[in-house]
Amino acid sequence: MDSVKVEITPGATVSRLEVLVRFVYGTIAMIILGFFGIITGILVVVNFFSCLILAKRVAPAFIASFIAQYAKVYAYLYYVTDERPPLVPQ
Question: Diameter of the chain by CA atoms?
Fold first, then answer.
């Protein structure tokens, strides 16, 4: 079974400028993540019925990338790390 791996390295010090940038960047990242969250929610429902009827998954890589991106964005927003996540899931 393939798994989703997210590596987050917490930092001990913080840049004051990064705290200010985090607000703007985090807002943009959350808007984009919300858009992808809507698509992922629809895919989860489709995936449920597809697994139930056809015994096949629909777009598991997309759903896995959304979950990994979600973890990265929230780690950034909760001041765990200063590493900015990409705006679009990979």
Answer: 53
